[in-house]
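Worked problem 6 (solution included).
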Amino acid sequence: MKNFCFSFLLERIILSKFEIFDFHPAIIKATDALGFDTPTPIQQQGIPLVLAGVDVMGLAQTGTGKTAAFGLPIVQQLLQLHDRPASKTARALILAPTRELANQIASNLRDYVRHTHLKVNVVVGGASIQVQRQKLGRGTDILVATPGRLLDLVGRKAIHLDKVKFLVLDEADQMLDLGFINVLKDIASMLGTPRQTLLFSATMPKSIEELSRAFQDNPKRIEVSPVGKAADKITQKVHFIGNRTKADLLKDLLAENKDDLSLVFCRTKHGAEKLKKHLVERDFKADSIHGNKSQGQRDRAIRGFKSGETRVLVATDVAARGIDISGVSHVYNFDLPEVAENYVHRIGRTARAGASGEAVAFCSPAEIRLLRSIEKLMGIKIEVASGEMSADEERENLKKLPKKRNRNRPKNRKTLRDGKPAKNSERGERRKKRDGEKPASFEGNRDNAVARVKKKPHRKNMTKNSFRADKDQSGEGAKEAGFSEYKSFSKPKDTRPKRVRPNREKPSEGDASETNDKKPKYPKTNRKPKDRKPKDRKPKSGFSDAANQGRKWVKKPKRRVEA
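Solution. The predicted structure is:
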């Protein structure tokens, strides 16, 4: 009996974790159906601040429940308004960088508002814009959109943003990387005021802090985990292997875990599609998702991956932040990403919702620099599963790679032939020394000669006057002035014999001896052209064709004009 009472009280305490936020009963019912037992750290810190109406800038790793951290309190505040949105308006706007992430956020929000009257719409590129306009015409409570398609709909006057009171920027760092900064500024200028702005991301570079100062008013910062930290239950390994043998190793690893869901990341779209076809030929249930796929193909690939029909999904960084599937057990980095932060998002597709997962990376000799930058960001040393690279080989591979130049510092183009920088104090002396080594023929008029040799235009760009001037300078006066070795660009005389053309003048009348021997190609004739028969034309009448058939036309007599 005591054990039963203790378990009952413990169950009540666990179920009442979300009740401490004083949510609406419909939200509590939705969270219980979804299996939300205990709030995550980002939810415990973020939900009270969002309910208080202050701006929030949240930093947390992927898979920690950021969507619920801003979605649940927004739903709570919209239920307290007790009104419906007007036509072509929205009360809450959530912006996401990719279509997959926008669809994932909209799917989670629909689960939260399942027992309420709130409507959630999503507008992304690649889908029918007419269907989206019809849905927006009925009014929207929560609108999830990508910046490009939203701006297109605003230009078509399908949506007005002056009624928006809640703005959420999810994965804002990726939106800045994709070049959406100007689009975000345009959208922010259309929103209503006052409004509450929430910013959530897995990484927080300096550009995000500048964006926060521009969009938010005294935001409260939440930092659950440091930048670059992955989930604790992810096991990371690296294989040092060449590019040509990566596919063979991947097939061996996939064959060991055929029943598990595996996600493979490639660097390029062409490489992802090529690898997917190669796996399908080896009897693997594989599919691909990348930027060259249409929206319908992307949705079908993700649905097949979720249902288990597809066991291997080959993707680019497009899917690094848009796939939320709890059953993914292995993430393979077939190509290491160029940006170290993307590695954190890639491996964050596994070990979600407290589960465990494994992240495997393939590192070729040319990718050693990328691996070291990833380890520096995460502050760990990734375990080596196979292969080995000595310090000398690593040093040689790092030397082969070009070092990144600081773009804020311009290149020093003022260098001499010996490669040494030309300082202001030494430049004049070295120039004099270099000019002094010229031939003796330049003595006397050396400065003028050097200037003419340097500034001499190409022959094609010279005019007739310049040719004439060069001809004068290259004569006897030029030799006396010291220009004996100066190569003139004057036009040489044409010494070839002139071509004699045949006489084409017309001979005089009556002098047949002066005519050319050749007969004209088209001799003149006095024959008149044949008379052409006039075309048969139908007489004009006001009757139709049927009425004209069988009608006998009689020539009308001329009118008599009386004198």
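Discussion: The mean pLDDT is 76.
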